[in-house]
Amino acid sequence: MHRSKLVTLLVAMVAALAVAAPAGADTFPDVIPLPDGFFPEGIAVGDGSTVYVGSLVDGAIWKGDLASGEGDVFIPGVEGRIAVGMSYDSSTGYLYVAGGPDGNGYIYDGDTGATIDVISLVPFGFVNDVIVTKEAAYFTDSFAPQLYKIPLTPSGDVAGPAETIPLSGDFQFEAGQFNANGIEATRSGQTLIVVNSFFGEIYTVDPTSGAATAIDLGGAVVNGDGLVLIGRTLYVVEGSKNQITEIALSPSMQSGEVVGALVSDAFDVPTTAAKFGHSLFAVNAKFGTPPEGTPYEIVRVNR
User: Fold this and answer.
1) Tens digits of per-residue pLDDT, 278-294?
2) DSSP label at 189?
3) CATH code, domain carrying 252
4) CA distance 207 to 249
5) Which residues, other chains included, contact 20 with Cβ-Cβ below 8 Å and sequence gap of 6+?
6) What is the pLDDT of residue 302?
7) Number of domain units in the chain
């Protein structure tokens, strides 16, 4: 084929692919409004570009679309209930929510909003965040040096009563402070990652024994909240700094290096984040601002 005709054909093919390719997250809205007074903390991405956000006011769950920026309250709030960290199980379509001071783990149907189960994890404590793996859902407790495990069947249903896993090894605990906070898991689910907000440390945790090993960050102190793990890159939401800190982990995850930070002029004390495409979506909690009448939002940043 003549070179000029080949070039013309290639250009046409690239143009056709560009038209046919679905829009990526980098074309989504940079800021998605939430209801005034909603006071968000947790966020989870569901199927497609569906997103869920929980309220610290009454445990309500907002459901929206990251592409359009539209959404509404999906699960009404209940007086005395709050929603903290969240995790979505794509195998079942269930949304897991940490209940904070009531000591419960909530499981909702991400499609209908029906309550699948309410599981008591601890009588007193602060159940802060949750991650779902193929074998279990794991919750952190900020006021006690332990994790809670809800075992799951291969099909993703609850397999038995909740278990308590004491944290040991390098894990530090200061009574009366927020300790264990955000939690993540490797793809295999054989290693958990937990951040200690008070001490500014991050640990790998054996989900069976609870043995924690501090990740050597070369002296860096990361007072994180929510965590997002993508491959060997760990993103740590640091609301007090209005940034998401980026840490490159070693293959063994015994060490890591702070290599940058994702920032936005729209950040206002972000707490947790979720990934979609090449973007992270974080919720602004605006701690220190009375929630009544306050506008809240989801903020997108490219990674």
Assistant:
1) 999 999 999 999 999 99
2) S
3) 2.120.10.30
4) 19
5) none
6) 96
7) 1
Cβ-based neighbours of 17, under 8 Å, separated by 6 or more: none
Nearest to 282 by CA among 249, 219, 235: 235
HSE of 102, CA atoms in CB hemisphere, 13 A: 19
Is there a contact between 215 and 253 (Cβ–Cβ < 8 Å)?
Answer: yes
Question: What confidence score (pLDDT) does residue 25 get?
Answer: 76
C-alpha neighbours within 13 Å on the C-beta side of residue 124: 1
Inter-residue contact 178 to 222 (CB < 8 Å) = no
At 212-267, the pLDDT tens digits run 999 999 999 999 999 999 999 999 999 999 999 999 999 999 999 999 999 999 99
* Burial class of 138 by CB neighbour count within 10 A (0 to 12, 13 to 18, 19+): buried
The pTM of this model reads 0.91
**In contact, 79 and 55? CB cutoff 8 Å:** no
Half-sphere exposure of residue 27: CA atoms within 13 angstroms, side-chain side: 7
How many residues appear in the chain? 303
Full domain range(s) for residue 85: 30-302
Structural domain contains residue 283: yes
Is 266 inside a domain boundary? yes
DSSP-derived letter for residue 70 is -
Cα–Cα distance for residue pair 96/6, rounded to 1 Å:
53
Q: Reduced to 3 states, what is the DSSP secondary structure of residue 12? A: helix
